[in-house]
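Single-chain item
Fold in token form
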Amino acid sequence: MAWDEWEQAKRDAATRTRLNQLPPDAAASATVNPDLVVDDQVLGALGDLARQLRDRVARDGDHARTATADAALELTADGLGLGRALHALHDAWTTKLGTLKDACAHISNHLDYSRSVHAKDDHKIATDMPVSRIWDAIK
């Protein structure tokens, strides 16, 4: 391969290869907006809301469970098919209520975890930054 061919191959590769950046013509028109913004207070407030929702669902969604189960038993004992249907409804409601409570707890826990991870990341970035500036000054 001649020197001119090598230089042409490098130019061709450079025009086709873009790592982690916008195409050259799009860079001028693009505005710089962060694609991930984490506000600790917002995550905390959302986590609190999810926790409050779970507590309220647990309290308000379960208030008729005992009375429904008792009514299902009595109706079944009296030989009415409605008792079995009411018992099936009771079981389905209990299952769905548990799923909803678990989902609220999962959301709350995940938001707490996200807050923790982002706080650690921010701390690491803050502590690593002066070291990188020192290295830049040494070079």
In short: The chain is about 80% helix and 0% strand. The mean pLDDT is 81.
